[in-house]
């Protein structure tokens, strides 16, 4: 059966966002540890800036998939979300707590159990799991957000421009107070800032862009350059500010880059359909397991006599490939044993 326009577009965005997450996590360590203004640092900065659209794309795609189809019941919606997000979140939080302990022992830097508990209660048992904790809040608010969008549609029938303007206003508020909106918020409230992106994804889903792909690509590249340049200015002239504003997922330049990337990949690319269809089922698994191979590859590559640029360029496909291979192996093995179990239980 051929992909329809909806599923192919959704899967393209999902695959691109997943690849961008790996690019982000590989390059972020380079931005923090490499000498400022070195060639390797600029490569890491540009890759980091390019990949900042990853989380916004995930959030917008979730909005497109969850805010459009009619709900059979709120209870069924929550029941499905628990199976899809709450159970994996619990299991992987426990796994990465153990991984943190193991890393501490290997590095001879033991991690106290109290720190693991603080990480868990703070919504970050490992650096990438914050997104799943944020998603819990977003899913919990989804029925209410759907109801609000239905009221707006009945009363005003707002265009996607209305939701884009709402996202811009929210991003502007975040811009003026991003330090206040940062780590001080408890994780159950993290989702609040992402509601405009969530709604924007649903609003833009059925509306094609009037701009051609070349114009969208040029605008996206421009935003990446702006993000990278702002990051350089802050680190070189205002290093005491801490969190880099232009890297924030809710910043104005990242919002603009995300909208460009959304329209670029929302249009089905039929030549990539086979690759997209193959990779899409593994995206969630890749997101969950890739930090393991990120940690391992960093330790191994640190011992090799490569320059920093070569290490990054090797690490990117290495982390992605090993994460994909792990997911494929797990899926094949679990399916094989499940089939064998069902066969054994089937009366002849």
From TrEMBL:
GO terms for molecular function: acyltransferase activity. It is a multi-pass membrane protein. Its main location: membrane. The chain crosses the membrane at residues 12-30, 50-70, 82-102, 129-149, 161-181, 187-205, 214-235, 247-265, 272-293, 313-330. Keywords: Acyltransferase, Cell membrane, Membrane, Transferase, Transmembrane, Transmembrane helix. It is found in: Cell membrane. The keyword Electron transport does not apply. This is Acyltransferase family protein. Residues 10-329 form the Acyltransferase domain. Belongs to the acyltransferase 3 family. Pfam families: Acyl_transf_3.
